């Protein structure tokens, strides 16, 4: 079997990262890309494999790929930009920006509680979502305003799998003087200034030929093949239709089946919890901006400090009642906690996506990192392919610092 040779480059001293990336294709990676910025400089830019095996299409330098829940991290970055502009106070009540939100016991929920997945608004079983277009933020907000919290806000947390992006999008629209949707706001306030390609709502002028086709768990056989990748407690939650896991994640109409993310209809709407599309280089560049002080975006020191603060657990601890494991959340990001570390310290922030993509900023080491792929399995942040590339990169940094 011929070894896959990655395209792109690594800066001197980071050659082991290229080796780790290429080795992933021995572990059945189909197509993938990895980009890493270090101290504001791009030191890793790799891609390889197949973007669409059915069409025999190779992964190219400008290939774009859906990153599922890693999209939430970019929505959180947009919120940070709005905070830096003085439009959002993380400790303000959501109802002060969105009056209708205050009904059914939600009047005192703060932005910070929502972004820490503590608002109790994760369940989707009461929402009427029957077709893909219903997933667009503009079509769902009136229903969101009517939701009732599943628990006392602030007392515990549970992953707001679908809903968090919608809530962020509607708050952004209401605080923005121009009334822009989250997708347009992100494009104009983050992506364009950084000359980066990441979209929440794919524009019509992006040709289909640039998109990687995701291969996921769309049949019982494929699910069986990936079953070992899904943590057992999470799997048990999926199987219990009355569990908070099932009520927050499982879509009876299968609208978020992985295969639907190969449809233009899915990628063109604004579904900020899951349909972001971009290339690894752009994603790493965006996070690098936030890892190095946000000079291009003119981010305030206050905002930077807020993002870097360690996560604080809710009253009932780190246990996430949807993901059924311990997770640290803050301001819309995953944060490092004991047993679930990434980056150099608790100052890091980012978000994984279904199957194992991961994008994050590490301010202490000035790192912007992105690993993306089109083979979607059952992993969250535990994808061994991504984990090995990340571990190897940080070992390279350590070696450089020792020289």
Automatic annotation (TrEMBL):
Stretches assigned to coiled coil: none
Superkingdom classification of source: Bacteria
Keywords: Hydrolase
GO MF assignments: hydrolase activity
Keyword Hydrolase appears in the UniProt entry: yes
Cross-referenced Pfam families: Beta-lactamase
Residue ranges annotated for the Beta-lactamase-related domain, each copy included: 27-381
InterPro entries: Beta-lactam-related (IPR001466), Beta-lactam/transpept-like (IPR012338), Beta-lactamase/esterase (IPR052907)
Protein name: Serine hydrolase
Organism whose genome encodes this protein: Paenibacillus segetis
